[in-house]
Design goal:
The protein is mainly alpha-helical. It has 2 domains: about 200 residues, Orthogonal Bundle (Lysozyme), CATH 1.10.530.10; about 70 residues, no CATH class. The protein is about 50% helix and about 5% strand. The protein is built from 16 helices and 6 strands. The strands form 3 sheets. The protein has a two-stranded antiparallel ribbon with strand order 1-4. A two-stranded antiparallel ribbon has the order 2-3. Strands 5-6 form a two-stranded antiparallel ribbon. A hairpin with a 2-residue loop joins strand 2 and strand 3. Helix 9 packs across helix 10 and helix 10 packs across helix 12.
Length: about 350
């Protein structure tokens, strides 16, 4: 690429000088200026401005690269789950929804924690990747935490702020918990997900009952657990297979071949309304509002809060630094308890 720049620049420099006999000196000067200018061009990717968008194929590739069980044995998948999640590929392909960039955000967080990306399918099972999802039984948000579980994992549910509806707060909590379970059960994602659903002590008790440990356990043969817990593993594997099989369809792959924003946890300063902050950042207010249902009345908050939004034009590091400075400048007053 650098040689192409050099060739083009030399051609322009020569063409810009009159071809008369006395033009040798101007030509030489022009060439020297051109070469000097080329010396300041970036020579490696690290020197280029950070990306603010990425292709949907890159998100899919990152997901596949992070799978613990990359091979799909379609013959072992219950047809019920394949039918239940048959629309997941269409949700990722839909440009009118935020599922693809949200999925990319969760995949990023899991890979940063060195966790298998099967876990990125949990929000499909729990909420259909809808940050504002609420269940009549009480669970809410992307990961469908109940209030007590959320508080136990340091997700604030207080006053007018419900952190379960924050994709940032809830995803951070889910990743922390999954990291603990993944280590507790010897890196077996299936045991970890069963513990995520049923509770770690219940799974440990079941393993001890039959003399199994994390190294030799057969999740499908653990006794005394709810059918829902066994099905949870099956659902995630079925979802992974549905996405893998979708890759054989050219139309679906073409629908993912588009640029979507890279989402990042940012900071909403205290007392600033979400729509006002979005305008200040030159972001689409409607999209930011959809991604952050927990911040509907953020202008009334007395402390800075996390907001999930596209990376700023300076890249993720510059955006994080600017947001941190904004948060530090804000007075931190505690929210009144519920």
């Amino acid at each position: 690429m650098r040689s192409l720049f050099l060739t083009a620049a030399l051609t322009l420099a020569i063409a810009s000088v009159s071809p008369c006999a006395g033009a040798a000196a101007p030509i030489g000067a022009a060439l020297e200026q051109t070469v000097a200018g080329l010396n300041v061009l970036p020579t490696d990717a690290a020197a280029l401005p950070p990306a603010t968008t990425r292709n949907g194929h890159a998100i899919l590739a990152s997901f596949r690269d992070g799978l613990a069980d990359a091979q799909c044995d379609g013959g072992t998948i219950d047809a019920r789950w394949k039918q239940q999640f048959a629309r997941a590929p269409a949700r990722l392909a839909n440009e009118d929804e935020d599922v693809l960039p949200l999925f990319g955000y969760v995949v990023d967080e899991l890979r940063a924690a060195d966790l298998p990306t099967e876990f990125a399918l949990i929000p499909f099972v729990e909420s259909g990747y809808r940050p504002a999802a609420r269940n009549t039984g009480g669970p809410a948000g992307l990961w469908q935490f109940i209030a007590d579980t959320a508080r136990n994992h340091d997700v604030p549910v207080e006053g007018s702020y419900d952190g379960r509806l924050s994709a940032v707060d809830s995803t951070r909590a889910a990743v922390r918990y999954l990291k603990t379970l993944h280590g507790m059960f010897g890196g077996d994602w299936r045991l970890a997900i069963m513990a995520y659903n049923a509770g770690e002590y219940r799974v440990l008790q079941s393993m001890r009952r039959v003399g199994m440990n994390a190294q030799n356990a057969q999740p499908e043969k653990l006794p005394g657990l709810s059918p829902i817990t066994y099905a949870y593993v099956e659902k995630l594997h079925a979802l992974a297979c549905v996405l893998e099989q979708a890759q054989t369809h050219d139309e679906w792959m073409a629908s993912l071949d588009r640029e979507v924003p890279i989402l990042q946890a940012r900071t909403l300063p205290a007392g600033v309304a979400l729509d006002e902050w979005a305008r200040q950042q030159a972001l689409q207010g409607n999209q930011v509002a959809r991604l952050n249902p927990a911040l509907g009345s953020a202008g009334n908050k007395k402390r800075a809060l996390p907001v999930l939004a596209p990376v700023g034009s300076g890249g993720s590091a510059a955006t994080a630094a600017a947001d941190a400075m904004a948060a530090a400048a804000q007075p931190q007053q505690p929210e009144a308890p519920a």
